[in-house]
Amino acid sequence: MENQLVAHFDLDTFFVSCERLVDPTLNGKAVIVGGTRSRGVVSTCSYETRAFGVHSGMPMAQALRLCPQAIVLKGTSGLYGKYSKMVTDIMAAEAPVLEKASIDEFYLDVSGLEQNFGTYKWVCALADKVTNETGLPISFGLSTNKTMAKMATNAGKPNGRLYIPPDKVKAFLNPLPVSDIPMVGKSTCAKLNSLGIYKIKQLAEMSPEAVENIFGKYGKSLWRKANGVHYGKVAPYSERKSISVERTFFQNTYDIESLQTLIGQMCEKLAFQLRSEGKLASCVAVKIRYPDFSTYSQQVKIPVTNYDQIFAKHAKELLLKVYKKNEPLRLMGVRLSNLVKEGYQYDIFYDDPKLDELYGAIDSVKGKFGKASLQWLSSKADKEAVKKEKRFNLNRTDVNSDPDLIGRKNIKGKD
User: Fold this and answer.
1) Which of 149, 160, 332, 370 is 20 to 30 A from residue 12's alpha carbon, by CA?
2) Average pLDDT, the chain
């Protein structure tokens, strides 16, 4: 891979930048996006906030002690998904090979472009296009592999554009602290420091066997990164084919009416996400889990749609089929799959221009005032009843499947 050339793009303070596009009065101010409760954490913060020592993954209470004037926002997942898709579409149309590493982070294999184009100029032009068409600030690093490209991006932020050619790799790495190596956490850094190793140059000058003896198999990879070597390829991007949401109940429940109410709310939430991403689904699946952890699921194919009520109708029917009457449940979930982009031919009986207008109006209100601002009457009334009975703990979710949390699994260190 001597001739490999990789570009790494990272949208600067992505969540904050999206919020600023919606509300320009936030520009230039200290802004934090994250959990608003006392036990919440910082997901992303503006550079104005970082000047006070605030960083991603910090407890919100500590962040507000350091920067009490900060404006704290809960975040708007649909907004972030919308802008992430815009950036992804721009890059996918231009890049030879694109890997979407997260909601705001991308790798491009641009090897070979230098034969016909000035690669650095080409990458600059792509960064300009992203910013011009979306309004989002973006940084990139360009170098010999994914690790070096990512480190170049981190070194150049914010709005950085840093190219590290092969003959400059060692000069770039040597003076940096070992903590700058991607995936080197606090414990690894502390262990290296305890051995008197503070700079990457010191680690690179050790024998690979010595590093492996200290850190096991991970040591070999660590030594390679310190020497600017990484064999990982840019994995071509492919769109996800399903979305899902699950709820683990605070108390096991067998109230079928409340379960059907909840499953309707799940479908409403997922359908809104589909429409915000310009997609439709043609398969509905329901999953349930009993207290002994036995798990059952059932699915049905339907004509492509993104209407709440159609998904809810089929999900409720599936629940009745898969659920054992009077048996308490521990968990319930809904998955929509076989996703396609809007423009796909609708089923003639499901295509209703009036419903399209209705859902368009609903989504406009939700996009402006939040997803909970407008709900179907039965859903809202039933939700209040469920809340009053305290049958469910609606705050406990599966972090890997809840649409509200998609893209936030890197919460401890995202910029």
Assistant:
1) 370
2) 82
